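It is worth pausing here to work through a concrete case rather than discussing structure prediction in the abstract. The textbook approach is simple: state the sequence, then state the predicted structure, then interpret. We follow exactly that order.
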Amino acid sequence: MANNSRVRTYQSINRQLDERYQRLLKLERTPFLLTHVPMGTGPSSSNSSSSSGGISSECYKQAREEFDKRYASPAVFQLVYRDFQISRPLGRGAFGSVKEVKCVRDPIPDYLQVTNSADSTVKSQRIALKIINKKSAHKMKQEEHVVNEKRILQALNFPFIIRFYFSFKDNANLYIGLELIEGGEMFRHLRDCERFDEKKAKFYASQIVLALEYLHLLGIVYRDLKPENLLIDRYGYVKMCDFGFAKKIDRGKAYTLCGTPEFLAPEIILGRGYNMGVDYWALGVLIYEMNAGNSPFWDADQQKIYHKIINAKFRPRSFFSDNLIDVIKGLLQKDLTKRLGLMFNGISDIKKHAWFRDIDWLQIFLKKLRAPWVPDIRANNFPDAEDEEPARSSINLFEKEFQDF
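Step two, the predicted structure:
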């Protein structure tokens, strides 16, 4: 959610890839077979009472029905910026900022109320208010991504995905109210630790696997999995955030060049269309980075990064276990017919992999396990950021472009 050194927008990536096409013409391209096995297909779906990991298939069926209903008819909120009191800035992004706020409207809307256990009084939830400047979003041609982010987020409901509270807009800005995740970004914690041990990395990875399983069930490709977009809650569990590049494609393909360079799958760089498999590739990069402290494809020369990705060239660290190396190689597989998550058994091949053998998926889903690290929520776990008032306008800027927000 905060600003960081990685490239985050389509335009930034596009500028860095200006020279890629001539280089790619010199490479020997592998003809990709784009396949996607939705959750519930293959032999693992033969048991109708549960999906792999002991989570009831009825749970996922109900989740799909609820999502479809909310996605088709997004809620409308009657709120304005002055309904909120600013507590502190949390960070800045490419075309907006995030602030911690609380609602001071009287009465407080039901969906923002929380009851004080000590005296039973009602107060406002602590909220992370994402403020998107219309002019900046339009300048960077991000209108579709911004509208998609709001529409998808407001329909999601999963333990490891940030909770949406509300959205509204005014003449100059768009606003999204999200739950406040006090532990801050995984990126910052990983930087402080340099790297995680395998047990800790596996704990986080298991939650991301379940979140991707949920998203892919709904037909959504995430496209921006990285430590900066993973927050740690007060109990030490992961919350996936920043759905600016998420898109509902169902069984189709996407062609837009977007994401973060070091996490891009080969099929995105080659521009031949892609599906949910890009998220499994990014999962492989993330698992490597959590365990090693750096990307498997990092290079000072951006073009060399893309060359390494296209050829799936990386070197496991000497301290990686055999099972860790195997799961990373299975996810960072440029042949889509052999990539974990895309074969006949779908995501079950990831969940049943030897590296995840000791994971109790149901206990993870229910958040019953003690986290290996719990953040100190009394500390400021967000980078220092300057507070500034949102832009104002006497006319409704880009009304047509953001009419569906």
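Step three, interpretation. The first strand starts at residue 84 and ends at 92. Confidence is low (pLDDT under 50) at residues 2-11, 18-52.
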